[in-house]
Amino acid sequence: MSTPRDYEGSLRAIEEMVALIESTVGERGSVGIGIPGMVSPRTGVVKNANSTWLIGKSLERALERRLAREVRLMNDANCFTLSEATDGAGAEFDSVFGVILGTGVGGGITIGRRVHVGANLIGGEWGHNPLPWPELSELPGPQCYCGRRGCIETWLSGPGMERDHRAQTGEERTTHDIVRAAESGDAGAQATIARYHDRLGRGLASVVNVLDPDVIVLGGGMSNLPGLDAAAAAAMRPHVFSDTVETVVRRNVHGDSSGVRGAAWLWPED
Known about the structure:
The protein has helices at residues 7-25, 59-67, 76-87, 152-156, 158-169, 175-183, 187-210, 228-236, 258-264, and strands spanning 31-35, 38-39, 46-47, 71-75, 95-101, 105-111, 114-115, 215-219, 248-251. It is an alpha/beta fold. It has two domains: 7-69, Nucleotidyltransferase, domain 5 (2-Layer Sandwich); 90-254, Nucleotidyltransferase, domain 5. The chain has a five-stranded mixed sheet with strand order 7-6-5-8-9, with helices on both faces. Helix 1 (7-25) runs parallel beside helix 2 (59-67), helix 3 (76-87) crosses helix 9 (258-264) and helix 5 packs across helix 7 (187-210). The mean pLDDT is 95.
């Protein structure tokens, strides 16, 4: 099933998916959903979604009407973090910062395996802070869909790496092509990945300087870059405001399924 890029299509796809799952397993289930944004506690509509067709929509209420049951929605990065904190890469730690590096960039926080959403439901939203310690060549930064320039997302998302490579080399390459070229010794591709490591390290250091989590778990498609966890940890250390850096950086355990698993954990077992 292709991903709809409109609101009604999204509702229909979710309804059809729930019906298919329930017909397959032969029983009615609870519904937990991870979304690329959050539902505003003041208005009840979606905000801060990079799937922009969801913004301003009463997604939760509409789904509850269509599915005739309570639906629990949570930011997809929060779902990812909950999954990895429960029985994944962060299971042995108390405080976990989960990172999504994909089409967009997001994050989530769990403490004691409970999601910290914050007073404004934006806990962990590091992707829409500016890239820290920018070089002059990085200013003012690329335009972001949120209306600002230079957001971490514009540098560390998959499209962000592709844009950076194009700007530096004039080459149109996908992230997969860039990685393959770097592994084959292409100097331009290697430089693109080195810049990515450096920017990721700076971005994560700013999180450590505020939150100081026990572990950072990397997720999303970009987390599959070879050796990214070690490279990020090394690039982060010079920017952390401490003489020691004990924060562990790990790649996720549950892969592309982690966000879905976290959505299921929104209905904890009794």
